[in-house]
């Protein structure tokens, strides 16, 4: 029986070797599938990012065009010609300037305070004695 036991033990070791090979094959296949999925999702994110960048470039170009249009509309020469041609306005040669004087009463003189403490206390509305 010792001969049979030794033969059966060698045959058992031969049968056990396909199990790790099968496990390794399944794990490598799962890793390849996982990496393929990550690559696919990365390419989708790259496509979305490039479309967003194209949109940003398009809106930047539109902003530049609108700024140029706005600056041409607000230029003094454009306003003058529009007022003259379409509204019939003329420039008056006579200019008058009115000056009004206002009297200010009950104004307390500002007393300069010295030092950093006074400026700190004046920040909080307090005075230093």
Record keyword descriptors for this entry.
single chain; 129 residues; mainly alpha; 4 helices
Give a short summary of the structure:
The chain has helices at residues 2-16, 18-73, 76-85, 116-123. The chain has one domain (2-94).
Would you give an account of this structure?
By secondary structure, the protein is an all-alpha fold. It has one domain. Helices cover 69% and strands 0% of the residues. The longest helix is centred in the middle third of the chain and has 56 residues, at 18-73. The protein is elongated and about 110 Å long.
Structural class: mainly alpha
Please state the CA-atom Rg, rounded to the nearest Å. Answer: 44 Å
Poorly predicted spans:
none
* Intertermini distance: 114 Å
Quaternary structure state of the chains depicted: single chain
Largest sheet: none
Query: Which word captures the global form?
Result: elongated
Order of helices and strands: HHHH
Share of helix, binned: 55-70%
Tally of DSSP helical segments: 4
Average pLDDT confidence is 78
Beta-strand percentage range: under 5%
The counted number of beta strands is 0
For the record, the count of structural domains works out to 1
Summarize the topology.
Elements: H1 2-16, H2 18-73, H3 76-85, H4 116-123
